[in-house]
Design goal:
Order of helices and strands: HHEHHEEHEEHE
Largest sheet: 3 strands, antiparallel
Mean pLDDT: 86
Oligomer: single chain
Number of helices: 6
CATH superfamily of the largest domain: Winged helix-like DNA-binding domain superfamily/Winged helix DNA-binding domain
Number of domains: 2
Length: about 160
């Protein structure tokens, strides 16, 4: 199943399908899909935005911070979760693109907040083509791209 065919957040099948995909991915890498890892995935899936470790623990008080961090590390290394750095005190985490779909971020350089942004398909196609053209000039083979817009959020 591709990201395009995943149910959307809020759909009753969303978490069930996501858990199946993640369980299979972890099994292929000889990791177990423990209840703690499932809880982390559910918190991130339902938040629908990047979260810091303190935010994750606050969202589910049953998660111990030390085990949550160890589980996040396994999930990042397995390609299930993506680690984002905003240059602030805390790293943000979100579901990886195959699970969440392609998107970009706007990052506040004052408070470190991160929000997802989605470009229209016509703009995304233009960005892909432009980056591919630039890459081909130097013999580089692109696999994917990510763009982050840095600035100040409305609260700052």
């Amino acid at each position: 199943m591709t990201a395009e065919s995943l149910p959307v957040p809020g759909d009753e099948d969303y978490l069930a399908e996501m858990h199946l995909q993640i369980g299979a991915r972890l099994a292929r890498q000889e990791h177990r899909y423990t209840s703690g890892r499932r809880q982390l995935i559910e918190v991130l899936a339902l938040a629908n935005q990047p979260m810091t470790l303190p935010d994750i623990v606050a969202a589910d008080p049953d998660l111990a911070q030390s085990s949550a961090y160890r589980n996040l590390d396994v999930l990042v290394r397995s390609g299930v979760i993506r680690r984002l750095s905003a240059g602030g005190d805390h790293t943000h985490f979100e579901l990886a693109e195959p699970l969440l779909g392609h998107h970009h971020h706007q990052i506040c350089i004052r408070c470190g907040s991160i929000e997802d942004i989605h470009l229209g398909s016509d703009v995304e196609l233009l960005v892909d083509q432009s980056l591919s053209d630039i890459a081909s000039q130097s013999g580089f083979t692109p696999i994917h791209h990510s763009l982050d817009l840095h600035g100040h959020c409305a609260d700052c």
